[in-house]
Amino acid sequence: MKTSSFRNTYAQISLQALKENAASFKASLQSPACSLMAVVKGDGYGHGAIVAARSALSGGADYLGVAILDEAIELRDAGIEAPILVLGYTSPHALREAISRNITLTVFSTDVRDALLEMASEAESPIKVHIKTETGMGRVGVQTKEELLDVITPLYQHNNIEVEGIFTHFAEADNLQSTYTDEQFARFLSFIEAIEEVDMNVPIKHCCNSAGTLFHKDKHLDMVRVGISLYGLRPDVSLEFPIELTQAMRLFSSIVSLRKLPEGSSISYGRTHKLSSEKVVATMPIGYADGLSRALSNKGFVTLHGQKAPILGRVCMDQTMIDVTHIPDAALGDHVEFPIDEMAELTGTINYEIVCAVSKRVPRYYEEKYS
């Protein structure tokens, strides 16, 4: 992750916002015994995994979550010693590396189960695992009680394996009109009941993502997993936060060219925009190689001096043009901001994708608070 650059395009990230967001979630949990997992996969949703993890831990997070083993190793290599759960699949050939670094593994398949059983005896300390159950996401996880018992029983019985957790994932916890989350929760509870009936007690039961944590407090159980809203972004832009959270990332570029162009001038590749009258056109050094979606061509906008300036023509790989005719004090070097939620709405996607797409060539500048 670049933290210095000669560029006029950058992401500004508030470490204080990340810390305070974690603290706000921690304070909102249904029970003081409930743990908070900060999910820092996807390079901390584009914010930087290491700094996001450290900020969340300083704000009260108890556990870290990542998608793949490589992400967990990055955190360990940075000296982070907090518990880390790999939420996705880890191949049998990679298990020894995870075990050697005290990384908790998700198990839902017999190949991983069998590989862990083979190597458990040689492990220096108990191997921690969480069992993933499928309750309606259609992605991964054991699907039946019989499959659950087949996967979990030999792991639970091994004296050098600790089945620390069992979990599922909600598909539409951000849809407050739907009963599907309640249905998924009931299925999850039935899985828990199935293992408890045979005297297997798993200490950490978890199912809530950001939306679940915010809007389904009755389902917090032993731990919640907070991802997108740790970064101050709403899981659905139609929802208002019920707790105080601050957006941590802001994306900026600046004006490097300012020119008056006559009526009829065409802008950018394919000449998809022709000026209907004389306009003042500004160019910014940001494009789709930086993660700015080409779908914003001719319909996105930036904010400059408190006003919207529309994108003209196609977003190029490295540059984008805007109309600043109505902003008379626009000047070379002025900073413009790209509104994250609005970009998501205009391109038919979600804010998760916008922040994750900000490419590695865009430097991240970390500040305690926004200036």
TrEMBL record:
Substrate binds at residues 139, 317. Residues 248-367 form the Alanine racemase C-terminal domain. Pfam families: Ala_racemase_C, Ala_racemase_N. GO terms for biological process: D-alanine biosynthetic process; peptidoglycan biosynthetic process. The modification N6-(pyridoxal phosphate)lysine is found at residue 41. Pathway: Amino-acid biosynthesis; D-alanine biosynthesis; D-alanine from L-alanine: step 1/1. It catalyses: L-alanine = D-alanine. It is an enzyme of class 5 (isomerase). Its cofactor is pyridoxal 5'-phosphate. The active site is at residues 41, 269. One of its GO terms (molecular function) is alanine racemase activity. The keyword Manganese does not apply. Catalyzes the interconversion of L-alanine and D-alanine. May also act on other amino acids. NCBIfam families: alr (TIGR00492). Belongs to the alanine racemase family. This is Alanine racemase. It comes from Alkalihalophilus marmarensis DSM 21297. The lineage of its organism: Bacteria, Bacillati, Bacillota, Bacilli, Bacillales.
